[in-house]
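Before a colleague's protein record goes any further, I have to sign it off. What it holds is a sequence and that sequence's fold in C-alpha cell form. Would you go through it and say whether the fold makes sense for this chain? The record follows directly below this note.
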Amino acid sequence: MHLLISVITNDWTRYHHAAEALKPHILASATPLVFAHPEIFHRSRGFLLLVDWDREHIVATRPFAKPFGFALEDGHLHVATWGDEEVLTLQGDKIVQRISHPWLNHLHSVATSDRGLLVTSSGTDLIAEFGPDGTPLWMFLLFENGYPGRPYPLGIHFQHDADYRHRYIPSALAMHVNSALPLPDGSVLATVFRSGELIRIDRVSGQIHRVLTGLHHPHAVRPAPAGYSVCDTEGRNVVLLDHSLHTTARLTVPVPWIQDAFLTGEHLFIVGNRRMPTATASPSPDPTELTGILEFSASGALLRRLHLPQRYRPFMAAPIGTDQSDQLATAWRSHLPDLPDVHWSTAQAT
C-alpha cells in the first residue's frame, strides 16, 4: 500500500514558539485581525511525502507552502496550503489551478463535492464550496450562523470587504472549524475545534445540528467503510458513525494528539502529534509518546510506525492507488527525497 502524507512545515517547533510569543499582543489588541505572521513563518516550508508503506520506502517528496489537507480526484491532486492561502490543483508536478479568496485564512481541509471543492478556512471560521473554475458557490461563516452568546472576537471584528489572507489569526479568536465533508443529502458535516463538536449544517436553512458534543479539540471528519470517522484529538479516540450519524464505536489509541485517522480493512491508521504547547503550558517532550504515522491492528496492537522528527508537523495521510502513485513518483522525480531522520519501526516499537 502507498500513502500520501502532508507535512505542514520543516520548522514547526520554532514557528510555534514565535507564534505563542506574539499571541498575547494580538489578543490584547483592539484590532486583533491585522497582525502578520512571525518572520520565521515565511522561511519554513512543508512538503507532501509519498511512501510505500509495506516496503518501508520513501518514494518521492514535493515541497509546498505549508500543506494541510488534500484530496485526490481523477488524476488530480488538490492541496490546501497555509503559506499561500490557496487551494492548488496539480496534475503530476504541474499546478493547473489556484483557488483563492480574500476570506481564506489558515486553510485546513479540502474535500471533493458534486459541484467542486469544499474547503475549511479555520482562521475565519469559513466553510466554502468552490466550483471547478474557482467560483465561490457557497460561503458559510460560522459566526453568522450559530453559537449565540459566546465571546467571539472574530465575529465582532470581521469585515466583509477586508482581505484576511496572510494574517495570523489565533484560534483563540474563533471557533476554529477545521474539517468539512459533504453528505449525500446536500448537508455538510464539520468539526469545531473550540466547542468540541461535530456538527451538521443544513445548507438551505443555515441551521446547525449538533451530532457529537464533548469532544476534545476534534479534527478530520472522514468517510469510513460503514459511514464516517472523526478524531477526538486530545480524547485519544477515533469515533465511528454510521450513515445515519449514530455513533457505532470509539477506538481508543495511546496517541496524545490524533491529527487524522482512516480505516482500511481491519487496520486503523493514525497521524499522531505531540500535544500543542502553549505560552503557559509547555510539557516536556516524552520520547515514549506515540507520534508519527501509526498503523494499528483490529486488536489495538501497534504494527508499524513511521517516525518523523519533532520539528515536522504531519497533518494528513491517505492511501493512494498504485497508478496514481506511479504517476506522482514519475512527475516528482526532480524532488529527490532527502529525509535521513525519517524512519520506520515495527512490532510495537515506541
User: Anything to note?
Assistant: Residues 278-282 have pLDDT under 50 and may be disordered. The CA atoms of residues 7 and 314 lie 4 Å apart. The radius of gyration is 19 Å.
